[in-house]
Design brief:
- The chain is built from 21 helices and 33 strands.
- It is α+β, with helices and mostly antiparallel strands.
- The protein has 4 domains: about 120 residues, Alpha-Beta Complex (Topoisomerase II, domain 5), CATH 3.90.199.10; about 80 residues, Gyrase A, domain 2 (2-Layer Sandwich), CATH 3.30.1360.40; about 110 residues, Topoisomerase, domain 3 (Orthogonal Bundle); about 230 residues, DNA gyrase/topoisomerase IV, subunit A, C-terminal (Neuraminidase).
- It is elongated.
- The termini are far apart.
- The model has no long low-confidence stretch (mean pLDDT about 90).
């Protein structure tokens, strides 16, 4: 070796940089995947967690013993097994003790181990820990050659490659981790349901995932919450090993005095920090993005209690919560990505059935190894007991041989036909064991161990019996973990929520309003329909132009002379200005050379007649006039120099139109096409001039050309009735 080392001194080998980087990065990636980020499918643990539990087992920190300082545990872990920083090891230890982070804690902590608010735990010199019963179940049989061990990083110790795992830890507690080029995200589940599903799989290895989900219904988060997914979505996720679950906070309505109410949130989604959630809601309140919410208060003690106060009692609780679900962490998604290290030490994405089967196969192997280990121990003890029984038949001769022979061991073997082990054990016997009573105890122990040996031989010789034993263990475990508060399912599975379109009328309280537009284009909204318009104040030399009664939940359309339609919400006008209001041109992109022709409330099912000055027109439905942008929507395409003159409600079946040339024409409304955008059609022909006035009326009700004037029937109007695009006849005196 020394000669070889000397020969290598000064040796330089050229290697391509790309190849060197590739080799080293691959080694780093494999180390990250195998030794840090992905859990083992058999015990559900990453190396740091496995080393923590085994180190605590060596320190005898079982549930019946006292606590030891976490600093002592962390020191043993990093000194013997895990050569990393103490902070990362302590963080892993803390998480195993947090009942809001893991469904079934593996460590019982004493002291400050953090909170769901996101508070940090106390330093490890102040906190203490010991193992829980669940961790003991993971370690069950580890001293009985149930799993393989390998050397630690320094070769001085041995550590288990995997724990025996008599508990379905991977799915029960879940796991998250990010490796190089891959990640894992497994939600927690209910242990009793997992054991029941595993028992079904033992009984029928070809069972479908749908049947497993009949008993293991889905995730069961330690923080509870509502899982809002339909059955098929959950089935697809567990069949493929990839998917996601929508998790919502659990809430209820508390009634108060005078008809007031408040919402109380009692459970929040998994891995959401309560303090950050409250900060998020408060921030959105400051930005006025939660217009239905008045305030949020944290009244939590040991249990979560977030109080949400609505803006008014007229708001629907479901609508309020829907706005919060859409904008805050009260609803979150947990990703399912069951990427794990298999028994073959290769990473793979597995479905539910594969994960359960891998755990069961591991349990089968552990059980078989433990039975073989126990059988060897029983056979060794039986051999010793047989030697004892031979000795008890001839105690005097044995004593004589021990006292007189130079090599008593060889003489005992020759005299009583003993094995080396039997002779050695006899020579090591104490004198007080030579009592008659001890002989009776030995015979009873021999008979008991002989029966146990027969049972073990039978089990090891019959694969079916071993699987039956595993199934019995699963039923026992399911019964144990179904008891008490720990066993109760915390997350409720509901079907996917129906899509709720939150409209403006859902967001604010509905109340009567009057929107006022002045001659100079100032706009404001005033509460009530019975507004005294004479007392309304305007700027100097300004006056009332339009007063439109509406509701606070309505949308208003402003139709301009350039053929564009603009939309404003009354609720926005309520918050927009005070006193004189504000210029409408600040709210919509309307140039100074254009003006507003009409202002009206948009209503479903209604349609408008739009008429240009040149006599062209078309019908437009109200829904086609909705514009989401400040620039509006171009509805009527105008020719050069042309402007829109009328936009009126088309409620009737006849159109009466009067030109500036004093020609009057009446024709059926159905002759005008319904369009979403266009140049319209000719309503009345003019040699010169344009439209002076237009009316839409019902033939049955008759025409009242001016307000509070005589109503004229169709018989009176027959002279002017014709078809669309005619020139019309000379207007009657009452229509001029």
């Amino acid at each position: 070796m020394h000669a070889i080392a000397e020969n290598n001194i000064g040796h330089v080998e050229d290697v391509k940089l790309a190849e060197a980087l590739q080799e080293r990065y691959l080694a780093y990636a494999l180390s990250t995947i195998m030794s840090r980020s992905l859990p083992d499918v058999r015990d559900g643990l990453k190396p740091v967690h496995r080393r923590l539990i085994y180190a605590m087992h060596q320190l005898r920190l079982d549930p019946t013993s006292g606590f030891k300082k976490c600093a002592r545990v962390v020191g043993d872990v990093i000194g013997k097994f895990h050569p990393h920083g103490d902070s990362s090891v302590y963080e892993a230890l803390v998480r195993l003790a947090q009942d809001f982070a893991v469904r079934y804690p593996l460590v019982e902590g004493q002291g400050n181990f953090g909170s769901i608010d996101g508070d940090n735990p106390a330093a490890m010199r102040y906190t203490e820990a010991r193992l829980t019963d669940v961790a003991v179940a993971l370690l069950e049989g580890i001293e009985e050659n149930s799993v393989d061990f390998h050397a630690t990083y320094d070769g001085e110790e041995q550590e288990p490659s995997v724990l025996p795992a008599a508990f379905p830890n991977l799915l029960a507690n879940g796991a998250t981790g990010i490796a190089v080029g891959m990640a894992t995200s497994i939600p927690p589940h209910n242990a009793a349901e997992l054991c029941a599903a595993a028992a079904l799989l033992v009984r029928d290895p070809e069972i479908e995932t749908r049947a497993l989900l009949s008993v293991m219904r889905g995730p069961d988060f330690p923080t509870g919450g509502l899982i809002m997914e339909d059955v098929e979505t959950i089935l697809h996720a567990y069949e493929t090993g990839r998917g996601s679950f929508r998790v919502r906070a659990r809430w209820e309505v508390e009634q108060g005095r005078f008809g007031m109410w408040q919402i109380v949130v009692t459970e929040i989604p998994y891995q959401v920090q309560k303090a950050r959630l409250i900060e998020q809601i408060a921030h959105l309140l400051e930005q006025k993005k939660l217009i239905l919410l008045e305030d949020v208060r944290d009244e939590s003690t040991d249990e979560i209690r977030l109080v949400l106060e609505p803006k008014s009692r007229g708001v629907e609780p479901e609508i309020l919560m829907e706005t919060l679900f859409q904008t805050t962490a009260l609803e979150s998604r947990f990703t399912l990505n069951m990427n794990v290290i298999g028994a073959n030490r290769l990473p793979a994405v597995m479905g539910l059935r594969q994960v359960l089967q891998a755990w069961l196969d591991h349990r089968y192997e552990v059980l078989e190894r433990r039975y073989k280990y126990r059988l060897q121990a029983v056979e060794r003890r039986l051999e010793i007991l047989e030697g004892f029984l031979s000795v008890y038949m001839n105690l005097d001769r044995v004593i004589q041989i021990v006292r007189e022979e130079e090599d008593p061991k060889a003489t005992l073997i020759a005299t009583f036909t003993l094995t080396d082990l039997q002779a050695e054990t006899v020579l090591n016997m104490r004198l007080r064991a030579l009592r008659r009573l001890e002989e009776m105890e030995i015979r009873r122990e021999y008979e008991k161990l002989s029966a146990e040996k027969t049972d073990l031989v039978t089990l090891l010789g019959d694969k079916t019996l071993r699987w039956q034993r595993i199934e019995a263990e699963l039923h026992t475990m399911a019964e144990v973990f179904s008891r008490g508060r720990v066993g109760q399912r915390r997350s409720t599975l509901l079907s996917a929520p129906r899509a709720i379109t939150i409209l403006v009328q859902d967001m604010i309280e509905r109340e009567p309003m009057t929107v006022i537009l002045s001659q100079k284009g100032w706009l404001k909204a005033v509460k009530s329909h019975s507004v005294d318009l004479e007392k309304q104040k305007f700027k100097e030399s300004d006056s009332l132009r339009i007063a439109l009664p509406c509701m606070s939940t309505d949308k208003i359309c402003f139709f301009a002379t350039d053929g564009r339609a603009f939309t404003l919400k009354v609720a926005d006008l309520c918050r927009a200005g005070r006193h004189d209001g504000q210029p409408v041109r600040l709210l919509i992109d309307l140039s100074n050379d254009q003006d507003i022709v009409s202002m009206f409330v948009l209503e479903d099912g209604k349609h408008r007649l739009v008429v240009s000055h040149s006599g062209r027109g078309m019908l437009v439905e109200d829904k086609a006039l909705v514009a989401e942008k400040r620039t509006g929507r171009q509805v009527f395409n105008l020719k050069e120099g042309e402007k829109i003159q009328f936009c009126l409600l088309a409620q009737g079946d006849r159109v009466a139109i009067l030109g500036e040339n004093r020609r009057f024409l009446i024709f059926p409304l159905e002759q005008i096409p319904m369009m979403t955008r266009g140049s319209g059609v000719v309503l009345q022909k003019y040699a010169d001039g344009g439209v002076h006035q237009v009316r839409v009326f019902n033939a049955v009700e008759g025409l009242s050309w001016l307000p509070n004037t005589k109503i004229r029937s169709m018989n009176d109007l027959q002279e002017w009735s014709s078809r669309r695009a005619a020139t019309g006849k000379k207007a009657p005196l009452w229509a001029r």
